[in-house]
Structures are given as structure tokens and as C-alpha cells.
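Our preliminary data section would be incomplete without showing what the modeling component actually yields. Below, a chain of 246 amino acids is followed by its predicted structure, encoded as C-alpha cells that our downstream tools consume directly.
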Amino acid sequence: MHELSGKVALVTGGSRGIGAAIAKRLAGAGAGVALTYVNAADRAHEVAERIEAGGGRAAVIQADLAAPDAAADAVERTVRELGRIDVLVNNAGFLTHGPLADVSADELDRVLAVDIRSVFLAAQAAARHMGYGGRIISIGSCFNGRVPGEHFVLQATAKSALVGLTNGLARELGPRGITATVVDPGPIDTDMNPADGETSGFQRSLTALGHYGHAEDIAAAVAYLAGPGGRFITGTSLAVDGGYTT
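Predicted structure:
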């Protein structure tokens, strides 16, 4: 059953890891999918080719979302190339970790530009095109509600701000039938945070299940929120974290 047939989704940071899994899952549900990348053109095109090989439609957009105009431009390109936008998935972001004393002003500005400003501007642009039933889904972090150790100040700051932004979007756009939600991953096995990485034992110990999740676990949650099951879910965060925040 293709629950998203006729719909179009934009997935930022869709060339690898969680973003690539989301793009492929939404395409599998019938959506046309545009995905952005910064540098990994080959990987982005591999995702698009996989979607097209399965009979879907895909568009690849180069966009550095730290640039002020990039997020809105990606939305407009999605509409031009695929005809519309129904689902916006704000996945692009940074996994930041380091002592407070080492965070530079430039690093702070870049993280907030990608993790918060680009989400705001993409949502603003997408809302101009979305009809009733539109979805804005942002990928957050388990750090927005619990910070289990030191060196996560910047990550917690950005992802907590994302929750407030999402709540505001839910109230602003709710009368138009557009929902806004956050999916908060816990430890997910990707190249940015591999299950055999330096801190993986510590991260597993913080989950109730005792193991990492997979990118497909996040993609499944996004697909649910993007589909008919998500029509009455808005202004909230969904933890997909193996019990990390319990």
C-alpha cells in the first residue's frame, strides 16, 4: 500500500545515514523525493538512482544549509522539479561533542544556522506551498530532554531550540491542517556515530534495550508521521531511542 502516492517530500541531508534511509522509505511509500547534500554528490545520486530504479521520482539538490538562502531555495527547487511539496523533513544537522571551553563563535554560528535557522526558513518557504495535510518533521536528538554527561552543551542547545520552534509551527500552521513534529533518535548506527565507535559502550549503557538502533528505525517513524497515521499528531516529539530517555 502506497500511503504517500501523489505526495512530494524534501529531505535535507539525504545523501547518507538517517537522511538516506528516510528518503528511500518515503519513496517506497509512494512519494516523490528531493534530497539535499553538501559535498557527497556521488552518494546523493546513488540514493536517487535507487529510488528511480524502484519506479519512484527523485531530485538531487546541492545545498549548504549554513547559507542564508539555501533552505528556501531547496524548497523552491523541489516545487519546480517535482511539482509540489507535501512533506518537509529537516534532517541536516551536526553531531557536536566537545568541551564548552573549546566551542568557538564560528562553530556556534554554523550549528545554529544549520540546525535551527535553516529549519525555520525551510518551514517558512514550504508553508507557502503546502495544502491541508502537509507535514513538517524535524530530526532532533535525545539530548533535547536529557544530557547524560559533559561536552554536549552545543548539541543540547540546538536540539532543545528545535522543540520550541516545532511547537510554534504547530500552533501557527495547525489551522491550515499542517502538522509539525520532532523525531528524537537515540544512538543510531551510522558513519557519524558507529555502533563500534569510541563512545559506543557508554551510549549503549544509557539505553533500556542495551543496543544501538538503525537508520531504518528513524525512517519508519518519519514515514508514519508523514502518512495518514500522523494526521492528529502535532506539536510533540517522538523518542526513537531504545529507552535512552526513560
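Strands lie at 8-11, 32-37, 58-62, 87-90, 135-139, 179-185, 236-240. The helical segments are 17-28, 41-53, 70-82, 105-127, 153-173, 200-205, 215-226. Preliminary results of this kind motivate Aim 1 of the renewal.
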